Amino acid sequence: MKSTLEPRLTPEERLQRRRLLAADTASLLALLVFTVALFAGTALLFRGFTYRRADLADRWRQRGDAALQAGHPDKAVDALRTALEYSPGQRAVEVELATALAASGRTAEATAYFNALWETEPGSGEINLALARLAVRQGNEPAAREDYHAAIYGTWEGDGTVRRREVRLELVQYLLSRGDFEPARNELLIAAGNAPSDQLVRLRIASLFEAAHDDRNALHQYREVLAQGTGHRSANLAALEGAGRTAFALGLYQQARDYLERAQNHPEMEREPPAIRAAAGSELRDAVHILLLYPSPALPARVRAERILHARSIAAARLATCLPQASSALASSTQTSSTQTSSTQTSAPISASPDATVPGRTVQGSSTSESSNVLPTSAPAFEALLARWAQEPAELSVRQLERSGQVQQAELRLAYDTVLSMSASVASGMPLACGPATGNAALLLRIAERPDAVEQQP
Amino acid sequence: MTPLAEPSSLEQTPALARESLLRRIAPHREERLFLVLSIFIGIISGLLVVLFRMAIEWISILTLGSAPHPGQPRLLIIPAVAGLMVAALVRWIFPHARGSGINQTKAALYIYDGYISLKTTTGKFLTSAIAIGAGHSLGPEDPSLQIGAGVASFVSRHLKLSRQRLRLFAPIGAAAGLAAAFNAPISAILFVIEEVIGRWSAGVLGSIVLSAISSVVVARWFWGSEPMFRIPQVNLRDPRELIAYAVLGAVGGVASLVFSKALGYLRPLLRRQPRWTEFLQPAVAGLLVGLIGYLGFPQVMGPGYGAIDQAMHGQFAWKVLLALGALKILATTVSFSSGTPGGMFAPTLFVGAMLGGAVGSFEKVLFPHFTGAVGSYALVGMGVLFAGFMRAPITSVFMVLEVSGNYSIILPVILANAIAYLISRILQPVPVFELFTHQDGLDLPSMEVQREESSLHVEDALRPVDVPILSGSATLATGLSTIEEAGAAFLLISTIGQQWHVLSAAGLRDLSANRGAEATLDQTIGPERTPTLFPDMALDTVIPHLAHWPLLPVMNRARRGSLEGVITLDDVLRRYQSE
């Protein structure tokens, strides 16, 4: 409509319009060709550029790794930072860099870096572990615990189960170093429940249980290791030693003797440090002695009666040492029983002296007479104990004991109660004339603590 | 004949006659070409910016090595030598390549009809790449903006477009260049509107958007779609954290002020030095920047994107961040004031990120439970410096949002940016780029003034209805008697359809003499009616109508027939004169 209102174009103008359109088309085509050529040239250059960047990133990462492994974290920090500049966002390199920062003692920077990484991936096990270690280094216990747990329950690349267990065991070690045994034991129970049947893993868990004062679970783990056969010889020896040690601590002396004997006969034992060998040998000897003292129900009646009488005499001697003023009251019975025992006893190679002296003090002499004035013979526990001793028959023979199981039990109970009572009194700081039990008295005390466990089988 | 040349008959026609001829033979040609060329300009600008960034990095690797670190003698030598080279190139070959590129683009738009020579564009590319690549503390964004504008100017010139169109192409290319350099089209568009054009213009907005999008598509083809910086997870954990961001805003405002004052002092001081020192100034600046790198802070050399990234990912302790921010202000002031070509965007973002990171880290130490990630502070810090130093408040907000892709941070950004902007504005009334234009002897329009210019409205010049009003059905005799009784110069006539007509006393008398006193007003005034005006309309829209009408009625928008007042040319002029 508009065109009808406008004057028509002259032939010259129409020609000019056609030429203008042709020129514009040619110009746009030329522009298109130029653009395509520029694009192709840019793409070619960019390819070389990106290749070079990737190459530089790789090279600097390798240098960083090498520096980290060679123990030069400062150099590693620079190298890894450069690697990240050429190839930003590489998670593994970022974590390595943060680790290098931590290793080079730049704790604040490392913490800031790990915190920033954590912000983007709060569930990362690796980052939480690093933060936990930094918190340990900074002495921030609540943060350390929290971060360790976040690491345990976080995500891990590769074998997550193994990494989680490792973190948990690291947490246990941290807790043990802080003296927090209860939470350490709880963590260990979880770790043991999830642990594979791998000797070394079980052995590590067992040793940590032992360090956490949980001998029962430690023994269980050592047994698990031993049950897996002899795959790893040194592990096997360590398990035998550990099992012997923990069984001994639990009062399972027969098991302790068996494990320790096997350990002594183990071909690797000679390579063990002398201190360990000596400790194992001492425990074995004690276990053997305890088993020789122990009046096992499985023994022939006469032998059992003899051992009971021997235990009675050890207990009487211990009582006499600790409460000398009561010794006169007991003289007749103990003297008799002692005589009887010594006359009948033929096969008890007791290494320790039954009337052992207390280190640092003498049973007789001035110190005893000084303390005797305050000896608590009137204490209710001692009164009852002394009363029981006072009711003892004047003469007690092996034959008498052999005949009556009831008498056997009563005598044995009296012996146990005596050593336990003396031990408890010493431990509580009561002013007695004796110190902690030694020799046969100490061995009897061990039996008395858990008489049923001595010969208990696994 | 070049492929872009036009037919000889048109070329030989004088410019005005040629434009008139083009309008006649191809009236829609320019509109169509305008949109197509915007896309081409976007693509070519994007490609050139990709090449520009590659050139900077190649030069950096070749001269400073792949991992510059403190203690390397070349950190001292290379920037100084590059400074000498750049000074020689600027002095003898590319005299217009000095500076950042923003003011040059504005000058092209407002003074030179959008003209930026190919030589200047090439010079900007080369000299900036050498300077930035060799470690001068400058950024590639502002040169990219000028390179884009140069491309636009070159392409549009060769298509022989009208002067009006040629002028519009400069901001189109500028937006394309900046968008590609930033990988953020919205920020680039807003920056060009806020800082180059100064106002929203529907005529050019579509083309700016087209070119910016085209260039970003090209840039992303090469660099990938990731934002320029790897953005950490940003969030606002606790409303109390806003206090911390307000502190950041205040710190950023003061830092912007220090930065502006330093540049405002050193730049003219160096320009006043003897002419022969122009050769040495970039070299000395390079030496100083190199010394900072040599002594332990190579991060301040070049644009510093790597360090920005590291700051956003919490890789520096707060003391290091603070030191880097302060040293970057020093290095950039020296580099820029020496006349070395290069931009201020990257250094501004660098300083902002460092200050933000420092404030964030420090506050994290004081209030570990309610502060967010350090990266959030670094990101907001970038916007804060942009608002305070560049004085582009809208762009600063959108830049952070666009770069982070996270709108949950909008509250801290707005709060901190507003505080920084206000502090900077109160303490430094003239924005830094405007200061540079004054120092260069130019008088370009102030975008800040333009943005805030208060426009007058009709209501500002309105006066009560003090002329008689008659219905169109009244006779001319009635009209005459009414106007004489009132002693008025004009008569307002209400006609059918709530429309109005105005007659002067003389006109009424003429009509009465010609048509007879008993004729009605409707019969005699003809079909013309006054334009419908409302009090909220811009005052300048009234002026053209006052050439035809001596007095104009102003209506009420709610009650169409009701008059709010009248306005005359005298009223309008008096109002403008009283401004």
Low-confidence stretches of chain A: 1-5, 334-374
Oligomer: heterodimer
Outline the biggest β-sheet of chain A.
none
Helical coverage of chain A, percent range: over 70%
Distance between the termini of chain A: 111 Å
Number of DSSP strand runs of chain B: 5
Strand percent estimate of chain B: under 5%
| Helix-strand sequence of chain A | HHHHHHHHHHHHHHHHHHHHH
The 3D shape of chain A can be described as: rod-shaped
| Major sheet of chain B | 3 strands, mixed
Whole-number mean pLDDT of chain A: 81
Largest interface: A-B, 52 and 52 residues
What is the mean predicted local confidence, pLDDT of chain B? 86
Cα gyration radius of chain B (Å): 30 Å
Query: Helical segment tally of chain B?
Result: 26
Our measurement of the CA-to-CA distance between the termini of chain B, rounded to an integer number of angstroms, reads 55 Å
Radius of gyration of chain A: 41 Å
Number of DSSP strands of chain A?
0
Label the structural class of chain B. Answer: mainly alpha
Morphology call of chain B: elongated
User: Strand order, biggest sheet of chain B?
Assistant: 1-2-3
Description:
The complex is a heterodimer of chains A (458) and B (579). Chain A is mostly helical. Chain A is 73% helix and 0% strand. Chain A contains 21 helices and no strands. In chain A, helix 2 crosses helix 4 (91-103), helix 6 runs antiparallel to helix 7 and helix 14 packs across helix 21 (439-449). Chain A is rod-shaped and about 155 Å long. With 579 residues, chain B is mainly α. Helix content of chain B is 64%, strand content 4%. Chain B contains 26 helices and five strands. Chain B has a three-stranded mixed sheet with strand order 1-2-3. Chain B has a two-stranded antiparallel ribbon with strand order 4-5. The model of chain B is unreliable at 1-10 (pLDDT under 50). Classes of the chains: A mainly alpha (458), B mainly alpha (579).
